[in-house]
Design a protein that fits this description.
By secondary structure, the chain is mostly helical. The protein contains six helices and two strands. The longest helix is centred in the C-terminal third of the chain and has 28 residues.
Length: 193
C-alpha cells in the first residue's frame, strides 16, 4: 500500500507533508535539522543520499538543489566550527567534493523519480535511493586519485553507509507522514492524496 503522502499525479512521487507553497521551507527545516543530528552522530558520514531523495521527492529540481546545498552548508559549518575539522586544503577540498556529490545525487534522484513508473511509491523511493547513493559514492570515489582516501571505499564501509542512508530515508519519510497527519501548517491548497 502506497503512503498517502506520496501522490502519483503529473508531478511524480512528491512527498506532500505540507501545503505546496510551504514545501521548500519545510524541506529546508527538515533537512537542516536532520543534518545537524547526522553531523554530530556521523561526522563525515552524513546521509546526503537520503537527503537528496527526500529533497527530490518533495521539490522540483532547483529548490531541491538549494535545500541540499543548505544542508551541506550546515554540515560544513558544524564540521569546521564545532567538530574542529582541520583547516587545510585537503579537508576543504573534500568538503566541496561532498557538496558536489550531494548535488549530483539530488539531480540523479530527481531524474530517477521522473522516469520511474507511477504506483508503488515506497519502492520508487528505494530505487531513487539506490541511484542517488550510487552517484554520490561514485562522485566521491572519483576524487580519491587527487585527494586520497581510497581506504574509505571498502565494501563494508560503503554497505554500512548505504544502510544508514536507507534508515535515514525511512525516518525522514516517517517524519513527513507524521507532519502530514498532524497538519500543523494546514493543507489548504494542497492536493488530496
Amino acid at each position: 500500500m502506497a503512503l498517502s503522502i506520496l501522490r502519483s499525479d503529473d508531478d511524480r512521487f512528491r512527498l506532500h507533508p505540507v501545503a505546496p507553497r510551504l514545501a521548500p521551507m519545510f524541506g529546508f527545516a527538515l533537512l537542516t535539522a536532520s543534518c545537524v543530528l547526522a553531523s554530530f552522530a556521523f561526522a563525515c558520514a552524513t546521509p546526503f543520499a537520503a537527503f537528496a531523495v527526500v529533497a527530490a521527492a518533495m521539490l522540483r529540481l532547483r529548490p531541491a538543489l538549494l535545500v541540499v546545498t543548505g544542508a551541506w552548508l550546515v554540515n560544513q559549518t558544524i564540521g569546521f566550527g564545532v567538530l574542529h575539522y582541520p583547516v587545510d586544503a585537503n579537508t576543504i577540498a573534500w568538503g566541496f567534493v561532498i557538496g558536489a556529490a550531494s548535488l549530483l545525487a539530488t539531480a540523479a534522484a530527481s531524474l530517477a523519480l521522473g522516469r520511474l513508473p507511477q504506483g508503488r511509491t515506497p519502492l520508487m523511493l528505494a530505487i531513487a535511493l539506490v541511484v542517488a547513493y550510487g552517484v554520490y559514492e561514485l562522485a566521491l570515489l572519483a576524487a580519491t586519485p587527487f585527494l586520497g582516501g581510497e581506504g574509505a571505499f571498502t565494501a563494508a564501509i560503503v554497505t554500512r553507509i548505504g544502510l544508514t542512508c536507507a534508515a535515514w530515508l525511512a525516518g525522514l519519510v516517517a517524519v513527513c507522514e507524521i507532519v502530514r497527519l498532524l497538519a500543523p501548517f494546514g493543507r489548504k491548497g494542497a492536493m488530496s492524496a
